[in-house]
């Protein structure tokens, strides 16, 4: 349960950089449409949980940075939607958590976190903002423990590496 909650917190607050390799061209305008090989997800995450009431004032702040490994699948992008096809990966990281009571640091912990995400087929509508930012209108593309989870609308940055045109 703790691992799934942590993953939900990570996914809910993640800034994602998708890096893909384009294998053919797609329709529509802009540089995004096409079919890409999924290479990895990189995230820098900060998650804050606060509990107040009944004389208790506790806050936990967690930090993690990771790049996924064992990546599989493709990403198909049209001018307004993105579809993951067989996308899977493994997250291997350490989560550093600081606990504060009444604003005073009372504890800290560093815990290893490994989460294999099995291949999934998901989709979402998106908008491009500027030249390198993306906003997922219906939330992110999230599958946890083999079940699809509802995510809040989210965004991130995209980049291209290698020969993509």
Helices, strands, pairings?
Blueprint lengths: L1 H11 L3 E10 L8 E20 L2 E12 L1 E9 L3 E21 L2 E26 L3 E4 L6 E2 L2 E2 L5 E7 L5
Parallel strand pairs: 1-10
Antiparallel strand pairs: 1-2, 2-3, 2-4, 3-5, 4-5, 5-6, 6-7, 7-10, 8-9
Question: In words, what does this structure look like?
Answer:
With about 160 residues, the chain is mainly β. The model is unreliable at about 1-30 (pLDDT under 50). About 5% of the residues lie in helices and about 70% in strands. It has one domain. The protein is elongated. The chain has one helix spanning about 1-10; strands at about 15-25, 35-55, 55-65, 70-75, 80-100, 105-130, 135, 145, 145-150, 155-160. The longest helix has 11 residues, at about 1-10. The strands form two sheets. Strands 1, 2, 3, 4, 5, 6, 7 and 10 form an eight-stranded mixed beta sheet that branches. It has a two-stranded antiparallel ribbon with strand order 8-9. A hairpin with a 3-residue loop joins strand 4 and strand 5.
């Amino acid at each position: 349960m703790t691992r799934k909650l942590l993953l939900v917190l990570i996914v809910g607050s993640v800034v994602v950089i998708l890096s893909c390799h384009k294998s053919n061209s797609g329709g529509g305008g802009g540089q995004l449409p096409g079919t890409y090989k999924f290479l990895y997800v990189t995230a820098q995450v900060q998650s804050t949980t606060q509990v107040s009431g009944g004389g208790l004032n506790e806050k936990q702040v967690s930090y993690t940075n990771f790049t996924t490994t064992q990546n599989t699948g493709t990403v198909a992008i049209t001018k307004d939607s993105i579809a993951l096809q067989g996308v899977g990966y493994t997250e291997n990281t350490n989560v550093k958590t600081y606990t504060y009571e009444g604003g005073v640091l009372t504890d800290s912990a560093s815990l290893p976190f490994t989460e294999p995400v099995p291949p999934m087929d998901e989709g979402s509508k998106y908008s491009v903002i500027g030249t390198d930012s993306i906003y997922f209108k219906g939330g992110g593309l999230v599958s946890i423990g083999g079940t699809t989870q509802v995510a809040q609308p989210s965004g991130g940055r995209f980049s291209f590496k290698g020969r993509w045109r």
